[in-house]
Amino acid sequence: MNSATIYCQYCHQRLFDILPGTRGSVEIKCSRCRRIVKITFRKPETPQASHNFIPTT
Length: 57
Fold this sequence. Notes:
- By secondary structure, the chain is mostly beta strands.
- Helix content is 0%, strand content 37%.
- The chain has no helices and four strands.
- It has strands at residues 4-7, 14-18, 24-29, 36-41.
- The strands form two sheets. Strands 1-2 form a two-stranded antiparallel sheet. Strands 3-4 form a two-stranded antiparallel sheet.
- It is globular and about 30 Å long.
């Protein structure tokens, strides 16, 4: 399974890895710049089913 790496938004220090489909939120203190980083994980958008798709020409 592929994982995504999460970085500090201020100094770009690697914070942790997450698995696809992870949901929720977390606050973590960066070990390099000591700032609190708030991260929200959202469920990935799912494409609409193909039978609901109406093509336009």
